[in-house]
Amino acid sequence: MTRSSFPQRRLRDAQPFVRYAAAAVICVATNLAAQEAVVRAAPSAPLMVSIIIGTGVGFLVKHVIDKTWTFREPYITPAAEAWRITLSGLFSVLTTVIFWGFELGFYAIWGTDFAKYAGAVLGLGIGYVVKYMLDRRMVFCEATV
């Protein structure tokens, strides 16, 4: 059997959870890169400034990727889109509490940037699993996947 005879599974054809996980990795990197950019641009700014900016950037990127690629949700009306963004935002607040709790908790315990970012990655991972379950059931329920 030749290599070309194996079915070619691509990420775009994967199950929604696999695409969600891939998008989460992209958004974690985007979030942390935005935080680091703020820290470098304004080193005297309070820690929460970088965390809030990183979280906002991550939310926007994640919502666009989830709508267009992860769940392949069709556009319906402006009101429906506003409702989806609002609901997704509310769920993001819940999962952000998890994320920030780990990030700030690790920083408070160990006091290093490495600990802060390790806590962020762990908190984001847990938060994204919770958010996937909420998004799949309540936000992107008309998805075409």
General description of the model:
Keywords: Membrane, Transmembrane, Transmembrane helix. This is Flippase GtrA (Transmembrane translocase of bactoprenol-linked glucose). It is found in: Membrane. With 145 residues, the chain is mostly helical. It has one domain. The chain is built from 4 helices and no strands. Helix 1 packs across helix 4 and helix 3 packs antiparallel against helix 4. The longest helix is centred in the middle third of the chain and has 33 residues. The radius of gyration is 17 Å and the shape is elongated.
Give the helices and strands as they follow along the chain: HHHH
- Would you tell me the overall average pLDDT? 87
Q: Measured on Cα atoms, how large is the radius of gyration?
A: 17 Å
| Unreliable stretches covering 5 or more consecutive residues | none
Strand content: under 5%
The number of strands is: 0
A few lines on this structure:
This protein has 145 residues and is mainly α. Helix content is 76%, strand content 0%.
Q: Could you outline the blueprint of secondary structure elements for this entry?
A:
Elements: H1 16-41, H2 47-70, H3 78-110, H4 113-139
Helix pairs in contact: 1-2, 1-4, 2-3, 3-4
Can you give keywords for this protein?
single chain; 145 residues; mainly alpha; 4 helices; 0% strand; elongated; transmembrane; Flippase GtrA (Transmembrane translocase of bactoprenol-linked glucose); transmembrane helix; GtrA_DPMS_TM; membrane
